[in-house]
Amino acid sequence: MIRSLAIVTVMSALAACGPKAAPVAPTEPAPAAPADPAAPTDPATPAEPAAHTPATSFQIEDNHLVLPSPVAFATGSADVDPSAEAALWFAKDYLDAKDYITTLRIEVHTSSDTPDGQALSEARALAVGHWLIAHGIACDRLIAVGFGDNKPIADGSTPDGRAANRRVEFHNAELRGRLIGGMPADGGGMVAGDLCAH
Prior knowledge:
alpha+beta; disordered N terminus; globular
């Protein structure tokens, strides 16, 4: 009995002193997958479309920028229509190229048949300003102004005239910090709000 116990003790001791399992080598993290170019970007910093080539030539008439196409909105709302992108990129390019324009006035006008046209024009002016800010324009270079139907440029009794009266214009308001032509920065319209407010 004592001999059997001694054999078991010796065998246990040998087992304890036997070869130990080799340590497992740490694994390296897998290399990061390449970025998916089709993955969505952060909406707070929209990417410039691949097809956009910055404009370098601009025309000014009556102190406002002549746009390549109109800035349109969804009917009765301040949602910028996708068709407005070309004009908005053009306005951004203008401000990028003309850094001496210290304040650009965003004027939005509605037609006489627009319900609550003044409020809508102000909301649309803010929407345009926010688009430009989201695409890199400093908020303090912009003033958003709504005119409602107070400055028609066509006969509001016809469909074509009303369509012409619904418009967005970009006016130079300050040059190197000085008001242009003695006019107030708001051009006599209703300031829609502070574009620099968060």
